[in-house]
Write a structure and sequence with these properties.
Number of domains of chain A: 1
Helix content of chain A: over 70%
Radius of gyration of chain A: 23 Å
Strand content of chain B: 15-25%
CATH class of the largest domain in chain B: Alpha Beta
Shape of chain A: globular
Distance between the termini of chain A: 57 Å
Largest sheet of chain B: 7 strands, mixed
CATH superfamily of the largest domain in chain B: Aldolase class I
Structural class of chain A: mainly alpha
Number of helices of chain A: 23
CATH topology of the largest domain in chain B: TIM Barrel
Bound molecules: iron/sulfur cluster
Number of strands of chain B: 14
Shape of chain B: globular
Largest interface: A-B, 11 and 17 residues
Number of strands of chain A: 1
Oligomer: heterodimer
Number of domains of chain B: 2
Number of helices of chain B: 14
Largest sheet of chain A: none
Radius of gyration of chain B: 20 Å
């Protein structure tokens, strides 16, 4: 533990330190002010209270002054306390399918990582395709993306990071200087980000959005349907991403035989494929097949949890092994966000806000999608992508019902861009991990990322405009 | 009989006089003052604690041979005590020997061996060892003590020290706990060793802690000293003149160096509160001009110069050196007072030290009332003031210290 003494003027320190209590006091005052305003026409008293609570959560989620999960817990207890929903209904919302799906996905990914299966696949692919600088870059980028189809993009970034770091060191690339090193680490981060939006498994934010939609409107989006809707965006972004990387950071090395040595050493370390890896691999394949084929009828959370039980019956994991992979904070955060979203919808607050804020100035669903996706993609650069969904989706769903628009579309318009944060380390853990290597700076990332962000927004909206109608979506 | 000049009516002068010349005192008076017991760790710290007018504390030698020549005598009349000089006398209070000196720790160690009270402070040296003695580069004026010599030091446990502080605290003798350590060859200047003691004292008592240590090799240890709970720190340079420093303090010069002392003090003054970083300059071991230059330098960097008087100790290599006279010393304390006030150094921390003239007591040598400073100092000595000082020190530490758990 390092000690640091703050030598600034004591009054400055006091002012800065008193920011927190003053901030929370101000939040409390805003809450009481909103609660005690005369209830506007068209809004119920429950709706007014839901909006007051929503504003408080919005402030806390955006500023991050409380952990996201704690803000969510606050939302859960306040909903029944304010009489927005009754206790039973509120806590039942926490037991949402999405929450259990996320829990199951965490455990499955944990099992894959713990067994060594995911590292083996990663090393094998990089070893097979990484014979030239371009080949290695390509294999890292696509591998990160493909693995993020099946497990959390954060876990993929964390898993591949030590290997990429070792490659950069093995190739004697200079931190902060080497173009090739910059492109390798960005390939890792961007691969995870782009791949992470492809399925429900890439990040828990998609199940969150789907769960919020279901609780608010009763409409469901299944595993297969989601992937079909977003796959062109993923594919085009992967191609653009690779092109962008190689143009932005033209390779400054020719020979990468030293990287090969890294793969070989690592492969030797993990030895031959064991029973555990085979068994976990089989469970994973069966689970994914079930999600794709029977997701609608059996329920994706049920499939996930049954697979988890199977892992334990087969003694492929112990609770102790996977505990570190289960992010309870995210689970709490999602439960709270779903509860708050549902209470906004059920109390009529979401529709009222949509009316009040956006009113009559637009009547084109495509424009609504463009605006929400733009808002989302901008906000997600500065704050947690789950928080962006928790904030925008209730309003978005309200908007959809206002325009008689399919609420699913607005869910896509928020859930997909929420994962596309390319610019800053604080935007998403994959970026933070890449910058932590020291090989790429925040400035490099921001410079290259801004273009990607704009392109991603354009590609998503183009997909919505041209591809969605082709698969039967009606605006 | 030759009339000797006395300074009964100026507490500053009188304090210096008494420290230099001691006091004669009859055994019966001692009994009446409840002073029948002297601290038994050699006699070097043995003295009467007397409070002169204007709340001026002084520890006065009374058991040494040289006191027989002292013009001062402690007398008692109708339960009151006086210091008499010639035909005149001045009313004083005598501080009884702390009761806890008679107690023992649960492990059987006499508390008077562990803690010694000087005014409002209890001074504790948890490890009575100084490696300079082993290397024969000890400070030339230092006789060490029986525990220190030969490197066979004792280390008192945290529990022993806590029991001592508790006893002193209950008697109101631990406004400030003064922890010190001799030289040990670690880069942290001894703070790692003192850490558990500081933490334990802070955990159990609302008291302030001063640490006398050696300048650590790196400034991060100074940060650590503050963060761990020390409210004040002393790196005692002792001698300002660079050549004399090498001669008189060969160990400090060779293993730490004068530059490091000065740099560490300068840095500490930016970390600790105003008036809580101090350094001793012994008066009488170097020319007065050099002491004055030292005062200027230290006060200029925000450090409180503390000027103990050189007193020859039997057994020390410099035991033959003559003690300076009051007339020579007086202007130095006046200068000290001016220097600290000019540099706006807080004088309320270094107070009630009975073995040395404090900067604020320097006002007696320049005829300044220093009303404001005395008022503040008296406030900090009150119950409310002590609580305030402790609370402010704790709050300041809370605000300033940032712990990085990333390691
Ligand atoms: S540091 Fe110097 S004065 Fe202190 S105990 Fe050691 S030799 Fe004596």
């Amino acid at each position: 533990m390092k000690v640091q003494i703050d030598k600034r003027h004591i009054w400055l320190i006091i002012i800065l330190k008193s920011f927190r209590p003053v901030f929370f006091l101000a939040v409390g005052l805003i809450f009481f002010y909103l609660i005690n305003l005369p209830t506007p026409d068209g809004l119920t008293i429950q709706g007014q209270r839901a909006i007051a609570l929503f504003v408080v959560c919005l402030i806390l989620w955006v500023t991050g002054l409380l952990p996201l999960a704690i803000t969510s817990l606050l939302a859960i207890v306040t909903v029944p306390l304010l009489g927005i929903l009754d206790k039973k209904e509120t806590y039942a919302l926490f037991g949402n399918e999405a929450v259990f799906f996320i829990l199951g996905a965490f455990i499955l990914a944990g099992a894959a990582m713990h067994s060594g299966l995911s590292s083996r696949i990663a090393l094998a692919i990089m070893n097979r395709f990484g014979n030239t600088p371009a080949g290695l870059l390509f294999s890292i980028f696509f591998l990160a993306a493909v693995l993020s189809f099946f497990m959390s993009e954060h876990a993929v970034a964390a898993m591949l990071f030590p290997i990429v770091l070792e490659i950069a060191k093995g190739l004697n690339l200079r931190p902060g200087k080497s173009n090739y090193a910059k492109s390798l680490f960005l390939a890792l981060a961007w691969g995870c980000i782009i791949g992470g939006i492809a399925t429900f498994l890439g990040g828990a934010r998609v199940p969150l959005a789907v769960g919020m939609l279901k609780e608010a409107t009763g409409i469901n989006i299944d595993f297969f349907e989601y992937t079909v809707m977003v796959f062109p965006t993923v594919l085009i972004m992967l191609l653009i991403g690779y092109f962008w990387l190689t143009r932005f950071f033209p390779s400054d090395i020719e020979d990468i035989h030293l990287a090969k040595a890294v793969f070989e050493r690592r492969m030797k370390e993990i030895g031959k494929t064991g029973y555990m890896e085979y068994a976990v691999g089989i469970v994973m394949i069966i689970t994914i097949l079930f999600w794709l084929l029977f997701g609608k009828s059996l329920g994706i959370a049920n499939i996930a949890i049954v697979s988890v039980v199977a892992l334990f019956i087969l003694k492929l994991v112990r609770w102790k092994d996977i505990e570190e992979y289960v992010n309870w904070g995210i689970i709490l955060m999602y439960g709270g966000a779903i509860t708050l979203g549902a209470s906004m919808e059920k109390s009529g607050a979401a529709v009222w806000i949509a009316n009040a804020i956006i009113g009559d100035w637009t009547n084109s669903p495509l424009l609504v999608i463009a605006i929400f996706s733009l808002l989302t993609i901008l906000l997600t650069e500065g704050m947690s992508n789950a928080a962006v969904i928790a904030i925008l989706l209730p309003v978005g769903i309200g908007m959809a019902s206002q325009f008689n628009m399919e609420p699913k579309l607005i869910t896509y318009a928020i859930a997909v861009p929420a994962g596309l944060a390319f610019c800053f380390p604080m935007s998403t853990p994959a970026n933070a991990i890449a910058v932590s290597s020291g090989y790429i700076t925040t400035k490099d990332m921001a410079k290259a990322g801004i273009g990607m962000m704009v392109l991603a927004w354009i590609v998503f909206n183009m997909t919505a405009r041209f591809y969605w109608p082709m698969i039967g979506v009606k605006f | 009989m030759k009339k000797t000049k006395t300074y009964l009516h100026n507490p500053g002068y009188l304090k210096v006089e008494l420290m230099l010349k001691g006091i004669r005192v009859d055994g019966k008076v001692l009994k009446k003052a409840n002073l029948d017991k002297c601290r038994d760790v050699a006699n070097i710290t043995c003295g009467l604690d007397i409070i002169l007018p204007h709340n001026t504390w002084v520890t006065v030698p009374y058991a040494d041979d040289f006191v027989n020549d002292s013009p001062y005598e402690l007398i008692e009349s109708e339960g009151k005590f006086f210091v008499r000089g010639g035909t005149e006398s001045v009313n004083v209070s005598v501080v009884p020997t702390p009761k806890f000196y008679r107690l023992k720790t649960t492990t059987g160690i006499s508390l008077s061996k562990i803690g010694i009270v000087h005014g409002g402070h209890v001074a504790i040296t948890p490890a009575t060892q100084c490696d300079f003695f082993n290397k024969e580069i000890e400070c030339r004026y230092c006789a060490g003590n029986p525990d220190i010599k030969g490197g066979k030091g004792k280390t008192y446990s945290v529990e022993d020290v806590l029991e001592t502080v508790e006893a002193a605290y209950k008697e109101g003798k631990a406004e400030i706990v003064y922890l010190s350590i001799g030289f040990s060859e670690t880069p942290d200047g001894g703070i790692e060793f003192l850490k558990p003691y500081i933490k334990a004292i802070k955990k159990h008592f609302n008291t302030l802690i001063a640490v006398e240590a050696l300048p650590p090799k790196e400034n991060k240890w100074i940060d650590e000293t503050y963060a761990v709970g020390a409210d004040s720190v002393l790196y005692n340079l002792e001698i300002f003149d660079s050549k004399l420093f090498k001669d008189i303090c060969p160990g400090r010069a060779a293993l730490i160096g004068r530059e490091r002392y000065l740099n560490a003090l300068q840095y500490a003054a930016t970390i600790f509160p105003n008036g809580t970083v101090a350094s001793h300059l012994i008066v009488g071991l170097e020319p007065i001009e050099s002491t004055v230059a030292g005062i200027d330098f230290l006060a200029g960097i925000g450090v409180v110069p503390i000027l103990p008087l050189y007193k020859p100790s039997a057994g020390a290599k410099l035991s033959e050196c003559k003690m300076p006279s009051t007339e020579v010393i007086a202007p130095v304390y006046g200068y000290l007072y001016r220097a600290v006030t000019t540099n706006k150094i807080n004088t309320s921390w270094v107070r009630d030290i009975s073995v040395v003239t404090t900067p604020l007591e320097g006002r007696f040598f320049v005829d300044d009332n220093a009303r404001m400073q005395t008022f503040i100092q008296n406030f900090y000595k009150s119950k409310l003031g002590l609580k305030t000082a402790w609370s402010l020190a704790t709050l300041r530490r809370k605000l300033r210290v940032k712990l990085d758990h990333s390691d």
